[in-house]
């Protein structure tokens, strides 16, 4: 009124309460490089990155720039994961080796583009997803080893004449359950 300032608003992006702890968990489990891609301006991005303990960030990014940056990081560092919740994250989520969407607050486009969805929105679950993926890969490798050796033993027993056709079929039936039993380790509680 009458060219006098009568009010002002200051808005700031405040990280989720669990975000800094989630970043720490990621480094604790061996994630080597954490980069924040954001459409926010550089000042806001720097403040958020500092609050979270993130050393690398890129600001004022369009969806296409996020995608290109993700591809460049993959070329430099190997497989990449991407966490996002918005339409602007969807192309990079879809391209990442593992795209994780925040399902509660995320847009339908981000959820559709992702490989995994976190419900409820808890950034701490990201490290759990990584650990579960590592454990699953370990179990799969174990299943392959079990299958190979149980079949090698079966072949040796058949070709040496120890097993006839009926016993070989029974042996094969029984040993087919060994990888399944090994895979059940994934369902055990922590």
From TrEMBL:
Pfam family, one: Hydrolase
Major place of residence: membrane
Xref: InterPro entries: Cation_Transport_ATPase, HAD-like_sf, HAD_sf, P_typ_ATPase
GO MF, any single term: ATP binding
This protein's UniProt keywords: ATP-binding, Magnesium, Membrane, Metal-binding, Nucleotide-binding, Translocase, Transmembrane, Transmembrane helix
Listed PANTHER family: CADMIUM_ZINC-TRANSPORTING ATPASE HMA1, CHLOROPLASTIC-RELATED (PTHR43079:SF1), PROBABLE CADMIUM/ZINC-TRANSPORTING ATPASE HMA1 (PTHR43079)
GO cellular component, one term: membrane
Subcellular compartments: Membrane
TM helices/strands, residue ranges: 144-163
Protein name: Copper/silver-translocating P-type ATPase
Membrane topology summary: Multi-pass membrane protein
Family: Belongs to the cation transport ATPase (P-type) (TC 3.A.3) family. Type IB subfamily.
Secretion signal span: none
